[in-house]
């Protein structure tokens, strides 16, 4: 993952070359931003957090040891920055470990809005998207980070093992758990939303009743 | 051999990637045929991958703005113009090591809970070699080291076990700057650096009742390590009463010792031993009380099977969840560390 050109940049940056560090910023900004967006779910927050990541990295780059690869190092800083950002801004509700299997009926598939025609499509798509983002935000950090780095960043299990210093088996079992917990949360939210619609819209109530028998 | 659910779960991701070996795929399929719970897991994962995940990947906001890197570079330039550069944060003070000076890498966020983990083998060996004098600072309580008892290290200030000589104490006074300009390495990263696996991240994020379980991701400590009886910490609190658990840390293996301050002083100093790659060293951080939201206590559990201890501490439901991901090796548990309530 670390090309020789990048290595040269890194050496210069560690030696205090600001321009070289700037080049690294160029190289890594898209990746770091999308990590931050995965965690935080908002463009402005993700941009702020990306900036924080690079500022922290810049201040620490002189201590970079070449024992680790740069991407491992910078991703760690980014992930820590995201955790810190979530905590500071209280935008996350961390679930306790005993909460994840509360859904009574997990057989309800996650319903996407995109099969519902009409002018509200775009709004519904955005609403569903928001629901997914918020559901990710409910994952505890140790699950969210694996899910984001694997499923949104598409990193390999080996890379995840390196970044998080975990065994590959642990990475995989956390990934499975993160996906499962996320989908349970999504379904719970969808059921809540469906329930609200049923309560507030008697016409829609009748229309949807057939497809959402499980809604409470 | 048939798979159990934990094994099956580890394979589900690769199953969905189509990267399982044919024989493993067959074994997993056999398991799925008979296990409704794992089939549900699989279905949930498929739903995420096929239905929900694309919404995020196709979200226009998932891509960074074209000018973001330029903006970041500009802000770095402004930092430089204002006289701050990356060398300005080299306030790091070398951390004492039993064998070498080790660059301090550990700075925790202000609200993070700090705990001390160190291998008892390394501890007892290095303690005797390098840290013979007991601490006079009264800021650290150590549990469980053979050497502590042998040295009679208990001091009026409540110090047991780990000693800290004057030179080291003076180093720690100036050791850590917890300003925002430090790279944040959170508790979980700290523990990851030691080779321990953390099941939950920042304690600051944990709601009351959350579980936290720590175990070795490998076995870095020699088999010679043995469970030993230790002095009770002075202010060890009954976990059943008083300040109850904002978070629990369970240390599981016989080769773990935990250091923690049971009575919050003005300044907390936390240290841990790391024993890996044939080298043992000591890392240390310091945090001001005002920045420290947790009271921390140690409770030593009876030496029984660790699963029983975990069930007793967490209750059956949470314990079942915690133990689901943990392979118990039948080693006796030695200590359980409890990070408890806010100071307030």
Provide an overview of this structure.
The complex is a heterodimer of chains A (216) and B (344). Chain A is mainly alpha-helical. Chain A has 2 domains: 86 residues, RNA polymerase sigma factor, region 2, helix turn helix motif (Rna Polymerase Sigma Factor, Chain: A); 97 residues, Arc Repressor Mutant, subunit A, CATH 1.10.10.10. Helices cover 70% and strands 0% of the residues of chain A. Chain A is built from 9 helices and no strands. Chain A is elongated. With 344 residues, chain B is an alpha+beta fold. Chain B has 2 domains: 58 residues, no CATH class; 252 residues, no CATH class. Chain B contains 10 helices and 9 strands. Chain B has a 5-stranded mixed β-sheet with strand order 2-3-4-9-8. Chain B has a two-stranded antiparallel sheet with strand order 1-5. In chain B, helix 1 crosses helix 2, helix 1 packs parallel to helix 3 and helix 2 crosses helix 3. At the A-B interface, helix 2, helix 3, helix 4, helix 5 and helix 6 of A face helix 1, helix 3, helix 4, helix 8 and helix 10 of B.
Chart the SSEs and their pairings:
The complex is a heterodimer of chains A (216) and B (344).
Chain A (H helix, E strand, L loop, with lengths): L3 H11 L3 H23 L2 H18 L9 H20 L31 H18 L2 H12 L4 H8 L3 H33 L1 H8 L7
Helix pairs in contact in A: 1-2, 2-3, 2-4, 2-6, 3-4, 4-7, 5-8, 6-8, 8-9
Chain B lengths: L4 H13 L4 H13 L1 H22 L10 H14 L34 E4 H11 L15 H6 L14 H8 L13 H7 L2 E3 L14 E4 L30 E5 L4 E4 L7 E10 L2 E10 L5 E6 L6 H9 L1 H9 L11 E7 L2
Parallel strand pairs in B: 3-4
Antiparallel strand pairs in B: 1-5, 2-3, 4-9, 6-7, 8-9
Helix pairs in contact in B: 1-2, 1-3, 2-3, 9-10
